[in-house]
Amino acid sequence: MQPVTKLLDTPLKLIGAVTALISLVLGASQVVKVVGESRERRRQVAELQRVASEQQKSGDYAAAWASLTEASKIDGQAVRTAQEDVAMAWLRDIRIPGGSKFSDVVDPLAAVLTRGTLSATGVRKADLLGHLGWAYFLKSRDGASVASPEDSYREAVAIDPMNPFAQAHWGHWIVWRRGEIADANPHFAAAVASGRERPYVRRIQLAAFRLYGSADADSALVHAADEMRRNNEPIDASTKRDVFSIYYSAFNSEEQLRRVLGVLPPADHIVFIRALFSGPDFDASRAPLRDATVAMLQEDAGLRNDALVTWRAVRAALPPGEGDTRVRTRATAAIARLSR
After folding, report:
1. Which one of 8, 99, 190, 227 is most buried, by most CB atoms within 10 A?
2. pLDDT at 242 over 70
3. What confidence tier does 44 reach under pLDDT thresholds 50, 70, 90?
4. Which residues are CB-contacts of 268 (< 8 A; sequence separation ≥ 6)?
5. Residue 172 reports pLDDT greater than 70
C-alpha cells in the first residue's frame, strides 16, 4: 500500500496547478483592466485637449483653460505644455470684463508659466519668461506690488537675444514708464528682426507709440508704419487713422508741420502718404489735407511745378467757406509764391 502522502501528491499538484492557472487568469485580467483604464484616460485627455485647441482658436481662452484643467485632473503631466500655450495666448489677447481686475485672470496663468520656466530650456524658456514679465506688467496695472517685468525680460533675452515676446514687451515697458523712445526702439527692432510673431510684435509696438503722446512717439509711429509698408505687412484701418491724425494735428503750427514732414525723406514720404491714404476706404473729405501735405513734400524735393499743380487742385477742392481753413490758407499762399 502507498503512503497517504503519495496518494495525495497528484491531487495536490493538480490543485496547485489549477490555483496557479486561476491566479494567472486573474492577473492577466487585472492587467487588461489596467491597460484599458489607461487607454481610456489617454483618450479622455486627448479629447479634452482637442476641445481646448478648438476653443483657443475661437478666442474662448476661459473655456480652453477649463477644458485643460479638467484634463489635468486625469493626467496633469500630459497637459502641462498645452496649459502653458493657452496661458501665453490668453495673455497676448487678454480682455478684462467691467468690474474685474487683471489679477483675476492673470494669477493662475502666471502660476503655470512660473512652473514651466523651472524645467524649460532654450527658446521655450525665453518665451515663457517673456510672457511671465507681461503677466507681472498686467498685474501692476491693478496697483499690485509685483516682481519687475524687466527682470523676466532680461533673463529671457540672455537666453534668446531676439526673443520677440521679451523684446517687444520690454520696449513697451520702457514707453509705459515714460522712458525714452530711443531706448525702446532697439527692443522693438530686435523683436521685428526675429521674424517670429510679427503681427503681435507690431501690435505691441504701435500701441506703445500711441499711448506715449509725444513728438518722438509720433515720429516713431510714422517710421514703424513706413517700415511695415516697405515689408508689405498689413496696416489696419485703426493704425492708418492714428497716423493721419499726426498730419492733421501738425497743420496747427509751422514748427509742428516741419517736424512731421521731416520724419522721412521727401520722395519716400510722398510714396508713404499715397500708399496709406488712398483707395476706396479713404475718407474723401480728408483728401485736401493729404494732398496739401504731398504738395509741401514735392516742394521740399525741388519739384516746384508738381507742387504748384497739386496746390491748385487742393484749392479747387475747397470752395470758399468750406473745408479746412488751415489748408486753404496754405494753398493760397503757396500758389502765389510758386506762380512768381
Report:
1. 190
2. yes
3. confident
4. 226
5. yes
Q: Considering the entire predicted model, what is its pTM?
A: 0.83
Identify whether 254 is part of a domain.
yes
CA distance 126 to 148: 16
Give the count of beta carbons closer than 10 Å to the beta carbon of residue 281. 8
Encoded amino acid at 242, one letter: D
CA geometry: angle 270, 274, 280, nearest 5 deg: 170
CATH number at residue 300: 1.25.40
**Torsion-angle region of residue 202: left (phi > 0), alpha (psi -120 to 50) or beta?**
alpha
Q: In the structure grid, which three cell numbers stand for residue 12, read together?
A: 495536490
Burial (0-12, 13-18, 19+ Cβ within 10 Å), 105: buried
HSE on the CB side for 131, CA within 13 Å? 28
Residue 282's φ and ψ, nearest 5 degrees, are: -85, 135
For residues 113 and 125, give the distance between their C-alpha atoms in angstroms, rounded to a whole number: 9
Domain membership of residue 312 as a residue range: 230-340
Q: How many Å apart are CA 204 and CA 165, to the nearest integer?
A: 9
- Quick check: 318 and 331 in contact, CB under 8 A? yes
Q: Give CA–CA dist 192/72, Å, rounded.
A: 35
